[in-house]
Amino acid sequence: MNTTKRILPFAAFAFILVILVAVRLLSPGRFRTTPAETESFLTGKSPLITINDLQNQGDKYVLINLDPAGTVITGITENIINIKPGDILKKESMQKISAKGKTVALCSADLAMASRTWMLLKQMGIEKLFILVDSTGSEVLKYKFRPDTLTRPESGI
Amino acid sequence: MNSRVKISVVLLLSSALLAVIPLPGKNSLISTPEEVLSTSINESGFLTPDQVASLIARSDSTFQLIDVRTQQEFNLSSIPGAINLPLSDLLKSGILSVLPGDNIRKIFYSNGDLEANLALVAVAGYGLKNVAVMKGGLNCWFENIMLSSFSGDKITPEQNALFETRYKARRLFTEINSLPDSLKNKGLDARKFNRKKLDGGCE
Known about the structure:
The complex is a heterodimer of chains A (about 160) and B (about 200). Chain A has five helices and five strands; from the N terminus they run ααβαββαβαβ. Chain A is an alpha/beta fold and about 160 residues long. Chain A has a five-stranded parallel β-sheet with strand order 1-5-4-2-3. In chain A, helix 5 links the parallel strand 4 (about 105) and strand 5 (about 130). With about 200 residues, chain B is an alpha/beta fold. Chain B has helices spanning about 5-20, 35-40, 50-55, 70-75, 85-90, 115-125, 135-145, 155-180, 180-200; strands at about 45, 65, 85, 105-110, 130-135. In chain B, helix 2 runs antiparallel to helix 6. The longest helix of chain B has 22 residues, at about 155-180. At the A-B interface, helix 1, helix 2 and helix 5 of A face helix 1, helix 2, helix 5, helix 6 and helix 7 of B.
């Protein structure tokens, strides 16, 4: 009995610490990637995918439409879930996005918003996530700059 | 149990638990997902090429352009005043701390819309504030600024102001990018200095 009384404060202290650790580790609304993983999202394989590639990759997929509901997505009528970007972190949205085994493709007429949403979701730990596009060459510079050969350095430089 | 043993046990337990608690390290994400989402969907986080051209044309000092393309692409042509911070170097230790503070708007751009927006979300996660992206990237810059022209018989004052801004930005882009790499920054500073002298303002 005396031994129990003596170790009780330590046990209580240890129990509180374990609870704090568990809450921190297991809380759903936090980033789940390391800095190295975040860097790999920036420099790794492009997240852009065309509908043909998506259909050919074999896995079941679901499309997340970030635009207003009813927006036509390249002739696709099935497997579409409408989620506004501002609602992407809501519990029901995250449950739909993180459905096991499925590939998820974000669709939007605004590639900028789709890109931001993609990066955020990747940092939340969503795997098999892509951005649906018509063509994967959006990051290629289409124009060549022609220097003006008459330009001279300013005097005094 | 004497007090030394008790203290030792407490310290050992605390050490073991602290070893597994995911405390933020030097390079860890410090913003919450909600904060990053708020930054991402904020309308003020998107600037058009015309808005960027306007900032450049009036030598606005409250912004900093950040080009996230590779160094090779940056050297071929870049928007005057931009600094090059390739995606591969963006999150390297200490890099974000050398960027301007919260009072300076950091405007990211790339060739299109993808890379600059990925960079914005990444740096927002590390606590960088007052960030934005130039929509459409350099492709849109070329279409709207470098290759724009007016066609018609009459021009409204608003159109005139727009095309004047575009002309100034286009001229500066051409002049600066036509200089050798080693003189580009000096060329930009010299033009700012000359403009101040013409305005008659204090230096």
